[in-house]
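re: that chain from earlier
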Amino acid sequence: MQLPDFLIDLDPSVFMTDNYLVLDFETTNKDYGSALDPENTLLMAVWWSPKFGWKEKVGNEYEMGDLLDDIASVDYIVAHNTKFELQWLARCGLDLHSVLPYCTMLGDYVIGGNRQFRVNLEACAKRYELGHKLNWVSKYLKDGVCLSELPQSSVLNYCYQDVKLTAEVFVRQRLILQERGLLGVAFTRNIFTPVLADIEAHGMHVDKEEVEKEYKLLMKEYMILEQEVEEFTGGLNPNSPKQKQQFFFKEMGFAIAVAENGRPFIGKPSKDWPKGAPSTGKEALAALIATNDKQRECVELFKKQGALHAKLSKTLKPLYACVTETPDQILYAQFNQARTKTHRLSSTGREYGCQFQNFPRQYKHLFSSRRPDWLIGEIDGAQLEFRVAAFMGQDIVAMDDIANDVDVHHLTASTLFREAFTEETDEKIKKELRNLSKADTFKPLYGGEKGTPQQEEYYRKFKEKYYGVAETQDEWVQTALNTKELVLPTGLITYYPYMRVTKTGYIDGHTKVRNLPVQYLATAEIIPVGVTYLWHYMHNSNLASYLINTVHDSAIAEVEPSEREIFAELGTKAFVDDTYHYLDVVYNIDFNVPLEAEAEFSRNWGG
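^ sequence. v structure.
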């Protein structure tokens, strides 16, 4: 299983060498010029290297032989939003497993930490006081004009300018990354990019029969509930803040809710509300506290309506459109690499508004293999965020529980369902209660403190038991409060300029400080490393199976049945052995908590 040189010799300082090539493509503009849309075509390429200077090629993806030869002669390529260029290079015939990219968009994202910089090329160039893109061409593009309709010489000049800016931004970025100890983080982001480019190209197959069944059931349930809500409210217009204020705070008599930071959900004074109009936004209504039976009925009714509406709008309606409007029932989405503050991936639907991630667990089964005899295989980092928290807090109790396979969900279930979860309880019921409690198990890791009396009791017990984690998180909060910064074990610098203590003693922003380091190391570092190695191993082992998604703590693939065992073996090696090695070499992190990978197979995802 020969890996590419850059994964054998893990050396982020490769980006400080000058054996690179800067590249930009210009294309037709359907779906923003995506190479995954077969109706798009390549118009031209411009590239530059310190090794051989400027080159250009006007032509389509079948005429880029010189470019591919030059890419083979350098250590890495540079582009802005390299995933776009990589997908076009794949159409040109390049094996993405062989290339190390550097993305200037990701460079500024890493430098920004948790600050959400604008990271388009124009914004990056402006930050470094460089030049501008050719704005008159950009204006035509924003107006929907295709580059193929503009004079070729103008488009070529536009492409040259983009390469020049990208090269200049890169030179500035790599010095900053080196100076701040961030080359390793940038290296991790960039080796993951070809993996994501490939996953996007495959898409996910939607099970038509299952979607139609679930859609019809939920639509029926939603229509019945809509009628109940209308009868309960007397025909409330959900788009009218005035009607909602009248209904919730006068007719129903709810008190204005208070946010976790102690501030009431209240707006500017008005004629009807001289002391301030109560907010009727989702967060404000979700925080309402019922004090009588009528209010409790109201809260439950709207909570149920909101949950059903979310399932329909975010999942079932888009999937139903996919299976009824496309011949192959393939859902394509786009990974967003530079959007979240935690540096984990997010995704956006290329079609139908449905994305690759955050599917409700109950709807994962709506995805299946596109071949009837194949399986969906998933490699999962078991309890990864808990293991990361144990490591970061060097929590002896947590580390001992992990080493001895203690069921961490048992404490949750026995606290939340004390009366039902006893030694005499049937094992099947215990399992159901344990599954119901999973959502609460790790909430204390993310600053969870408020809830029902049972939940709050559990949160206290969690912190008392895993005191090493709790004390470390308290230290993070104090450091961020005092210095407005927090340096994570990989070197990533996160910034908290607005943290403060309120008059009530509440620390604004403390939950973000408790949450980010754990979520970041687990899902923005460890999982991308594991998925990257797995992707290369599958290719080098000549597997027919291929990855179709990665969701926070797992990798999902369509698996040929005879490759089931080797897929599981490769996944365990990548998610455990190679991840330990990578953390040690790239970040000097001795991850002394056991990592574990679990493999599951089914006809449908999560089935």
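The CA atoms of residues 46 and 56 lie 4 Å apart.
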